[in-house]
Amino acid sequence: MTFRDWYRVDRLPTIYCAGCGNGTVINCALHAVDAMAWKQEETVFVSGIGCSSRAPGYIATDSLHTTHGRALAFATGVKLARPDLHVVIFTGDGDLAAIGGNHFIHACRRNVDMTVICMNNWIYGMTGGQGSPTTPVGALSTTTPYGSAEGVFDISELAVAAGANHVARWTSYHVKELTRAIQTGLETPGFSLIEVLVQCPTGYGRRNRLREVSDMIEFLKTHAMLLSRYRKMVAEGKPVPADIFTVGEFVRRNRPAMGVPP
Amino acid sequence: MTRTEFLQGNVACAEGALAAGCRFFAGYPITPSTEVAEHLALKLPKRKGVFIQMEDEIASMAAVIGASWTGARAMTATSGPGFSLMMEHIGYAAMTETPCVVVNIQRGGPSTGQPTLGAQGDMLQCRFGSHGDYSVIALSPASVQEMFSLTVAAFNLADRFRVPVFLMADEIIGHMRERFAIPDEVEVVPRRPLAKGVLPFAAGPDGVPGFPVFGAGHGVHVTGLTHDERGYPRATSPDLHQELVMRLTHKVESARRDIADYQVVNPGARRVFISYGAPARTVQQVLHDRKDPTVGHLQLRVVWPFPEFALGEFPEAEVFLFPEMNLGQMAREAERHTDVPLVPIPRLGGELHTPAMLGKALEAHP
Questions:
Q1: Which domain holds residue A211?
Q2: ipTM exceeding 0.95?
Q3: Second label for B286, Cα 20 to 30 Å away, from A26, A27, B315, B321?
Q4: How many A×B Cβ pairs under 8 Å?
């Protein structure tokens, strides 16, 4: 088998816009799943609502496309009732951090054995580009026409604080690192969160001076700072540029977990 | 050997769930339903079942649906405020045809209302509370024994019709202690599995598709979006949407006679009480005291789909009297099915109608 065999080919092409980063993330996820040598009949993909959450519909396994923000609660039911099934969730910044914020922190706290891939594009894409809990301060969206005035959630730090066993952040540019991080998540018992910063040229880029797809990918490439480097700079008291974001592995630990197969 | 117990209704409900083979319970504490969860927290782990207390009722209902797709008989229990939160996923369960049982031990509303006192104010919410058109099944127990037996029935109906089934009890029945019998075995009607070569959402002659359990290689895609027989989203086809929603509604409504469960007392009566849940007890007392063949009683155990044909069991009826612990929610439904005058007898505040109150209603209609 290759990663291609995991696609539900009769549903392709996807609904994603030209230049969207979500397809890259699905590719990386399926490469990682394939590397685990899991069987399709033992794997369940779950999602909420939004662009990212359409992903399970393109994968040839049992899949549950649920309600906005609640994927983790559905997945908890699947995993606890059948711990022998592998459960992977696709979600986004609005789905996970806004309407699903409470389910998110409690799933981390319970440390339920599942892998969550969050496509963070700083925007509500499906509804046409509204501000989300990760929209950067000052960024334009249809609901922040004068620039977002709200602070942002750091989704990965939130997962670490809430108790997840494994947390990593990469971008749609870092396909190798991302694939490896997802595979680590799949291997780690307990709750794993892989946050992926993805370009949304349609909903975000064109309103925020990143008009071309390549502009957004260039942004992801040039503004990503390795967590280890960031921590070293902070420890040494060196000034850290304000517009960078950290990438890398935030935590890998072995807290007691729920739903781990015997 | 049948075992006899003297326990409260909520515990009888939990025992009914166990007898029916419930393997998964997710819930959130709320008065006056909490004993259902507490009893299952105690018992389920010892029977290879799963009990989990979720972060809220939205999540509880979600976990129940997730568990149900793995084939488990799954249930939650709540009361008014939690029931309101569950509406989102009750609609999801209806759309995705996920069997599940929701117990509502009703208390006084709206809002936080009267947490410790009984009511029947959620009878229309359980039928119409989520957005869009769909159909569900609702049962209403009037005794501790019925808390047990109707919980078992709820699981069988949920699996047969693949809909959310509600046990619409109330605080009075939930907290009342009575003697009841637990049989060694109860009738369990399992889900019909998806046959080989059949599309996952292609309905059988009864309007219900076979169940493609997760983990069996069906590769089924389940979505709350309007979907075709493959389960694939097709949200912009007017014909497909109409066909799907008509089927979801029709599969229950067309089986109304089959689903119906009611008791008729004095079918020749001129004056007939209709009741369900706790008020049935007052009516029983009135009939017992009066021993008057001109007074009849229709006790509904299945409330939705409403068995309008049951009104015809009383051909001599000159008036229907309908005591409810709400402002006439089911009376309105009954009224639209009969030309016989129908008098709602509403009672709010948490206390049951007294026999004297119902006696007064009889005297007003001699």
A1: 3-252
A2: yes
A3: B315
A4: 122
